[in-house]
Amino acid sequence: MSTKSKQPKVDKPDTEWRQQLTAEQYQVTRLHATEPPFSHPYNATKKEGTFVCICCGDPLFSSDHKFDSGTGWPSFTAPHSDEALSEHEDNKLFSRRTEVRCASCDSHLGHVFPDGPEPTGLRYCINGVALNHKEEDEE
């Protein structure tokens, strides 16, 4: 169920990712780990702006689509654009889920579920360590 992106791929050797990222960022984005719930400040932030990929800086989500899902992870109803994410079937943990990754650098971000609020009915449940927040005046 992989979604093709029109964006050029960012391809770096593992050694470069390890140098660029913190240990936790590397574990989540490159090894598909999950940060503990309620552990990242982006879960509660209400600041306006754009959430970008911690690995490549591409825009992933707008604060306009952020909502409090109560799950402990930053949640969004829609991506920044149709090309921002790729989706992949994830059958780990004895369940069927849809993993979302950055379309440009293939970083693991989290999962999307069909239990979100209107207008999309989707809940993009994203690891805060996979994101960087750029306030509107920084963009």
**Strand ordering within the main sheet:** 3-4-8-7-6-5
**CATH structural architecture:** Beta Complex
* Count of distinct strands: 9
| Beta content | 25-35%
Following the backbone from N to C, one meets helices and strands in this order, namely HHEEEEEEEEE
Provide keyphrases for this structure:
Metal Binding Protein, Guanine Nucleotide Exchange Factor, Chain A, disordered N terminus, 139 residues, three-stranded antiparallel β-sheet, six-stranded antiparallel β-sheet, alpha+beta
What's the helix and strand layout?
Blueprint lengths: L13 H7 L2 H9 L17 E5 L5 E4 L3 E2 L7 E2 L8 E6 L6 E6 L5 E6 L9 E4 L4 E5 L4
Antiparallel strand pairs: 1-2, 1-9, 3-4, 4-8, 5-6, 6-7, 7-8
Structural account:
- The chain has 139 residues and is of the alpha+beta class.
- The protein has a single domain (14-138), classed as Peptide methionine sulfoxide reductase (Metal Binding Protein, Guanine Nucleotide Exchange Factor, Chain A), CATH 2.170.150.
- It is 12% helix and 29% strand.
- The protein has two helices and nine strands; from the N terminus they run ααβββββββββ.
- The protein has a six-stranded antiparallel beta sheet.
- The N and C termini lie far apart (32 Å).
